[in-house]
Write a structure and sequence with these properties.
Radius of gyration of chain C: 19 Å
Structural class of chain C: alpha/beta
Largest sheet of chain A: 7 strands, mixed
Number of domains of chain C: 1
Largest sheet of chain C: 6 strands, parallel
Order of helices and strands of chain A: EHEHEHEHEHEEEHEEHEHEHH
Radius of gyration of chain A: 19 Å
Order of helices and strands of chain C: HHEHHEHEHEEEHEHEHHH
Strand content of chain A: 15-25%
Structural class of chain A: alpha/beta
Strand content of chain C: 5-15%
Chains: A alpha/beta (302), B alpha/beta (327), C alpha/beta (299)
Number of strands of chain A: 12
Oligomer: heterotrimer
Shape of chain A: globular
CATH topology of the largest domain in chain A: Rossmann fold
CATH class of chain C: Alpha Beta
Shape of chain C: globular
Helix content of chain C: 40-55%
CATH superfamily of chain C: Thiamin diphosphate (ThDP)-binding fold, Pyr/PP domains
Largest interface: A-C, 45 and 44 residues
CATH architecture of chain C: 3-Layer(aba) Sandwich
Helix content of chain A: 25-40%
Distance between the termini of chain C: 48 Å
Chain lengths: 302, 327, 299
Amino acid sequence: MTSDSTVMVLGEDVTAGGPFGLTKGLVDGHGPQRVRNTPISEGAVMGVAVGLALGGARPFVDLMFCDFMTAASDQLFNHAAKIHFMSGGNYSVPLAVWTIGGGGTRWGAQHSQRLDAWISGVPGIKMIAPASPKLAAAAVLEATADPDPVVVFADRALLYSRQDLPGDSGSPWRSRVVRTGSELTVAATGRLVHLALDAAAAIGASAEVVDVQRLAPLDVEPVVDSVTRTSRLLVLHDEAGPGALAATIAAMVQDVAFWELDAPIARLPSPATPVPAAASLEDAYALDADDVAGAMKRLLQA
Amino acid sequence: MATVTAVRTTELLERLLRARRFDEFLLANADAVRGHFHVSIGLEATAAALPRVRRASDLVTTTYRNHAHLAALGSDLTVMYAEIFGRDLGHQRGRAGSTHLSDPGVGMLHTSAMVSGGVPIALGQAHALTRSREGAVCFCFFGDGAFGEGAVHESLNLASLWRLPIVFVCENNAAAEADRANDYQSAASLLALAEAHAVHGTAVDARHPAAVLEALEALTGDVRDGSGPRFLDAQAGRWPGNATFFPHDATGPTDLRDAQGDADDAWRSTDDPLLNECRRLISTGFALDRMLDIDRRITAEVDDAVRRARLAPVAPPDTAFRDVVGS
Amino acid sequence: MYEAMARIREFEELVARARAEGHLPGLLHLSTGGEAVAVGVLGLLGEHDRVYTSHRGHGHFLAAGEDPGALLAELAGRATGLCRGCGGSMHLMGRRVVLATGIVGGSLPIALGHALALPPDAVSIVFFGDGAVQTGVFHETLNLATLWRARVLFVCENNGWAEFTTRDEHTTVEAVTAHAQIYGMPAETIDGGDVLTVRAAAGRLLQHVRAGGPALLECQITRMRAHYEGDPRRSAAADPHDPMERLAATLVDDGERTATLAAVRRTATIAAERALADVLADPPASLHDTAQLVFSRQP
């Protein structure tokens, strides 16, 4: 915001820093014209952001929880994502959206989702899911500098994490290997990258872990490359059910690397249910280190 | 029809106490809550009025700020706490938590954590009632912030177009501005917003439960008569504990004796609906000592409920994936 | 003004004929009957003003000076189209008319956002139908526009129809201005079939908007053709008032010759037909050219 005066922030409670402190202090430094609090009008606010972008500003929308994407979806999916194309290339929409998904807080079904497949499935949207603080910062900078709509999808579980990942000074636009290995490839996003690293160490497997951080357009190139060396692939994703992005990752890999595989691709998405509120139920729902280690072992034995 | 002076009974007091003590004990037992919750402190007047006007077949939709409605309607407090604490004993067996508490037994089928989420649903419920239950009504509660959502406008329009039997109740604890409804709402008033959609209504000072009851009764009567939907702007004071994103016990357990004292803070002297109801009862000749007796009884009930809920077994993990669909 | 209105009328009549002959595929919603609003309002368009419209936007594009040939080529799916064939009738994007959208109410908040980014004194003008008034986003936008004192002129073309349903089945509130008035913004209901009335009202309200704050102009018009071209339901108004005929009558009263007016119409017809002939000779848009248009910059 300091180096580019066209950047501005919109969202609920942004002048108070937001519920997670994302925008803390911004209004003091840049004023209420550039850091605009909004009423609970996600539909119109996303549209306002589109209009600002068309008018030469670079709006950054804090969409608090990805669950609210439902209210903002018409403007993001039907307008922002499609304007460059529908205009024949005459207009761009340099719009950045920050949102948070994932559970672990016992906040219940409407505040704990990941909607990756739905959002990333709309052509015209770019989406990055950073898994470390450096990459999150880089993603925000890239998103605000990009000429197209970019969604930065933050993992709830990593909001206050200070854990770095190998190689995370690199670009947030490329999926990348964070641990080399030879026995199997584990493709993961967000907190599951860290979980995969922990699980691999725990069972002593030579697992190559790939951080699939560019979810739209989906970057699976390093996964394909890894599979040619390991021949086994496990895809982890904190999204519900068979429609989760894990399925697309698996399909794209097998399109080009089927003959490299020694076993069917294993997928571990979340169960196909809404996220339950009670701690005991949510713990049963969420993928944990045991789930991941178990899946790795099964794949190694397949 | 109840007028302000005619309500001599303690029905409002008891419901207010039930709601208030429920939330106070919840705050004191926050360690047993793993997720987020909202308390209704300061906003209980509308809930306390509801059971008097509600008939058995009437339905209720509210928001994630639902404890007072449920407590006032007579929902089982142990079961409520159990759900909030993630225990199997809860109505929703731990899946819902505080934000999605509901109790079909008192006409509350579902609550939404999405601002304005319950409003279009109330329309559908009211529509279904017109086909099945003559004279039945749906009470739809939401906060002042919900008017930011287009869904509320769409719903008000449809309700008046289809003459649905809905009483919309806005629990409004926003600070009013001079020339507009509040900081976020530039329309002249919330009433004006409803009127613009041809939904008639009134405003009431929701710091005074008896006045709220009178207003709610009048509006509900109109709706039952088939005059179409109605709107109540229930203007409440703001409890200091709601000033942050997470409620905190800013004012301590309510002491009914403050109704006779000379408190210097706005909350105790003018904004607390429970203390205001005590003051009203005192002015009708009802003794403070008797109120304290009632309070002791209700407090013991709530205390017992929270203890039982804390002892209840957690929701078994192997049930976590059931009940996604009906069959 | 008659000439400007005639250009719109003859363009739309040509589009209707061309569609019937199979030259223009897709969904077409014509502005026939709305010419006075388009010309009356957009005749006052400033250099830095921007316009947003809806699926029924051809008239706005023409009145704002966009190239009719490029417009027609877009409707005909040609590579030379305004949007290289990617947008079509409902998603036209021009120079000063930034966006037409197929989502009812969709351009309202965008127009508001754009207004916030315009230079001082410049305004956003957004056209929408009475059907959009029942969308939630309309009300959200009015509130935000007032809160932020945005320079937006909301122009509602109230023809009493939303698709195939009349207004009384969508709402009990007759006056669109009632929704704007509660926000304290100037709001007028006028006869949208008289271009002079439209121009005068638009002038008044634009002056207010340029000074810093939104306003709403409700123009009562008739939808002279069906909701879309080819509609078998015949959802046009039963008793249409033709703004062209009304202006013609006024001009003739003031001494204009009917022959002159007829000549203006003929000139406009010929220009439109010539444009179509040119366009039909253009190559169709090809995906080869457009597949790279999803993003401005490949990641």
